[in-house]
Structures are given as C-alpha cells and as structure tokens.
From TrEMBL:
Belongs to the bacterial ribosomal protein bL25 family. CTC subfamily. This is one of the proteins that binds to the 5S RNA in the ribosome where it forms part of the central protuberance. One of its GO terms (biological process) is translation. Keywords: Ribonucleoprotein, Ribosomal protein, RNA-binding, rRNA-binding. The gene is rplY. One of its GO terms (molecular function) is 5S rRNA binding. Part of the 50S ribosomal subunit; part of the 5S rRNA/L5/L18/L25 subcomplex. Contacts the 5S rRNA. Binds to the 5S rRNA independently of L5 and L18. This is Large ribosomal subunit protein bL25. HAMAP family: Ribosomal_bL25_CTC. Residues 6-90 form the Large ribosomal subunit protein bL25 L25 domain. One of its GO terms (cellular component) is cytosolic large ribosomal subunit. Residues 98-178 form the Large ribosomal subunit protein bL25 beta domain.
C-alpha cells in the first residue's frame, strides 16, 4: 500500500485551551495510539489533504522531531458547519501484527451483460481487509468479465492475495441488472412471438 508522510511536532499541553490555540494557528491536533503510550502531536491542516480528501487509502509515516512512526488513520472529526478537520486519531502499525482497513474496490474487465444492454451496479465500494502492514493492498480487484445480464459477483470470487476479506461469503460486490430498455425489448419480442402471423388462415 502506498504511504504518505505527515510532518508534525509533539505537544505537551492537551487541554481545551491548548487545542483551541493549535486550531487557530491552522494546525490539527492528533493522537497516535497503538504504542506503549499515546503520542499527542499536531501538524498543518494542509498536510492531510492527500490523506483525507481522496477515495484512495494510504498508510502514513508520522515524522516528529527525534521519532518516526508508521500508522493508519483510525478516526477523524470534522466541524459540523465548516467541515474543517478538528481532530485525527492514528493507530501505529507493527510489522508482525495484522491490521484491519477498509480498502476501495476496483472494477476490471468488460461484462457481456453490460455489452448486451444491462446496467452495472457496484454494491460494495470498499471492503474490509485484514493483513500484515506489508501485505495491505491499494485496492481489491473485482473482475466482471464473466457477468452476464442478471448475474451477481460474490465476494468468494475475488482473489485474496496475502490478505483476508472479512465480509460474509454471500456479500454481493457487483451485479448486472436488466435495464428498462432491455426489459421492454424482451417483452415486445415475447409478444411478437405469441402473436399470430399476419395473413395466416385459422
């Protein structure tokens, strides 16, 4: 999985007044969990643009004076009106410990059902994956090349390479629905087949 670097500075004061001062200075208060003890730090709000405002997922390298940590974003709080980032929680990664993340689904291939007039519906935009940090994928590939009209692609059909998908086996990732136009054409064809030929004697 791709990684981005966040440079920050550790903070000692964690009260409301100190937090308000940090936000007023254009910084975001953060906490890193998963180590021996929580690490409180802050970083410039612009540093989180490529981490938060993207459909992709990344691991994070948190660089603080004298220390560096590998982590993932665990929780984020936004202001209810301005949507400014108020607070972010990170979780520290350890090479020998599996981690669970929501990873985007990438649709690949061409569905015969879609070519025949069907409509593709993606039921799962993200899937929950569990793996060692080194094996976390950038995305989970969902190949729709065998989906005929009316078919469904179940999670059991997806390739799990050094990671485990945590959804139930009956989870539908994508499906090809019959479009209104295709349904109407099928109904008209059925009516035409039942109707007696013109000029045919009874």
């Amino acid at each position: 999985m791709k990684s981005i670097t966040i440079k920050g500075s550790e903070r000692e004061s964690v009260g409301k007044a100190a937090t308000r001062t940090i936000r007023n200075a254009g910084m975001v208060p953060c906490v890193l969990y998963g180590g021996d003890q929580p690490v409180h730090f802050n970083a410039e709000e612009i540093a989180f643009k490529n981490l938060v405002y993207t459909p992709n997922v990344h691991t994070v390298v948190i660089e603080l004076p004298g220390a560096s940590y590998n982590a993932i974003l665990q929780d984020i709080q936004f202001h209810p009106v301005s949507d400014k980032i108020l607070h972010i929680d990170f979780y520290q990664l350890h090479d020998d410990k599996e981690i669970t993340m929501d990873v985007p689904v990438k649709i690949t291939g061409t569905s015969p059902g879609v070519l025949g007039g069907g409509v593709l519906r993606v039921n799962q935009r993200k899937l929950k994956v569990r793996a060692l940090p080194a094996n976390l994928p950038d995305f989970v590939e969902a190949n729709i090349s065998e989906l005929e009209m009316g078919n469904k692609l179940y999670i059991t059909k997806l390739v799990q390479d050094n990671f485990k998908l945590l959804q139930p086996d009956n989870t539908v990732v994508a499906q090809v629905r019959i479009s209104r136009a295709a349904m109407k054409a099928a109904q008209e064809a059925a009516k035409a087949a039942k109707a007696p030929a013109k000029g045919k004697k009874k």
